[in-house]
Write a structure and sequence with these properties.
single chain, alpha/beta, Rossmann fold, 8-stranded mixed sheet, two-stranded antiparallel ribbon, Alpha/beta hydrolase, FrsA_esterase, hydrolase, AB_hydrolase_fold
Length: 297
């Protein structure tokens, strides 16, 4: 396999990405991949892409605008609509590649990106298959899973960020994406801070900060409702011990998808990226791909 650093246009800027390609062969499928809340591709997405590429799939792994290798100011601005635009732009770019079969594009997203996958697959009937790993499906469910003290403080800072932005302040008020219990952070379960930062490679410069205003949108965001409109085969990898994106709610939405395969793993939200949980999950995902979007059409 080989990996190339590339950029592709999206909206008013560009997304930085890795393009993985297996050696040789005719035009084949591609997996478009992106991460979750405030995360970047270096946080273990390479581990998944390497496995998929070894199985014969090309992979396009991208950062959202305002994060990582992508353009966009201010930095660390998480905007749901802009991220969905980035997904559409990534798919369009992938379909333009001469070694890709444009009718065999697969979507792969995790955590907040898993919710984006559900919405994007529902909107694009040409998508061949999708994988949503520990997906964020309901803002209400995730908010109720957090401690009320933390939620109320996050809401207050988010409101302040939104108001000062409307009044012309250029730099957002940022809060941690992950923090300890009862802290002012978007994710503040007992396993959030350690699990989140464990995904960052040693020596990699990473800012655990996100513009606070997104919390106002997250509370109203329910991408799981779109599962019923996903017509392609979709694999849901759910974590039974998920403290961030409650698996019971995710399972309820997943079972409404017409062609869903749902697997529940005895893992927490951040466990699925590493160790035995990763090995089990990536093997199941590769088997799903082989059944529904085989490398040899």
């Amino acid at each position: 396999m080989n990996r190339t650093d590339i950029t592709f246009p999206s909206g008013d800027g560009s997304c930085g990405a890795w393009l993985y390609r297996p050696e040789g062969g005719p035009a084949g499928p591609v997996i478009v991949m992106a991460h979750g809340l405030g995360s970047v591709k270096e946080m273990r997405l390479d581990a998944y892409a390497e496995r998929f590429t070894a199985a014969g799939y090309s992979c396009l792994v991208f950062d959202y605008r305002h994060f990582g290798a992508s353009s966009g100011e201010p930095r660390q601005l998480l905007d749901v609509d802009r991220q969905l635009q980035d997904w559409a732009a990534a798919i369009a770019y992938a379909r333009s590649l001469d070694f890709v079969d444009p009718d065999r594009v697969v979507l792969w997203g995790t955590s907040f990106g898993g919710g984006h996958v559900i919405l994007t697959a529902a909107r694009d009937p040409r998508v061949a298959a999708a994988i949503a790993q520990c997906p964020f499906t309901s803002g209400i469910a995730s908010s109720l899973a957090a401690h009320p003290w933390s939620s109320s403080r996050v809401f207050a800072v988010a409101l302040a960020d939104a108001v000062t932005s409307a009044l012309g302040r250029r730099e957002p008020i940022r809060i941690p994406a992950a923090g300890p219990p009862r802290s002012v952070a978007l994710m503040s379960s007992a396993d959030s801070l350690g699990g989140y930062l464990a995904l960052v490679p040693p020596g990699f410069a990473f800012g655990n900060r996100v513009a606070a205003r997104v919390a106002l949108r997250i509370a109203r965001h329910s991408p799981g409702r779109a599962a019923r409109d996903v017509r392609c085969p979709i694999f849901f990898a759910l974590c039974a011990k998920d403290s961030v994106a409650p698996s019971r709610t995710a399972a309820r939405h997943a079972l409404r998808a017409p062609d869903a395969e749902v697997r529940m793993y005895p893992a927490g939200h951040f466990d699925i990226y590493v160790g035995d949980d990763f090995e089990r999950t990536v093997a199941d995902q590769t088997a799903f791909l082989t059944r529904h979007v085989p490398v040899a059409a």
